[in-house]
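QA checklist item 7 of 12: single-chain prediction sanity check.
[x] sequence parsed
[x] length recorded as 45
[x] structure emitted
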Amino acid sequence: MSREALIFMITVQGTVTAIVAYFFIKVLRTPAKPPEEDDDADSVE
């Protein structure tokens, strides 16, 4: 494998890893939504 190919491979793998880590952290830091109230169950008369 040539030096240029190795540099390109490491760069691509680093970029993909950084993007995956960014979105993984973003998902984990997003606060949970409060549960939605079910109005249909309360309106039964």
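[x] summary fact logged: The two ends are 75 Å apart (CA to CA).
[ ] second reviewer sign-off
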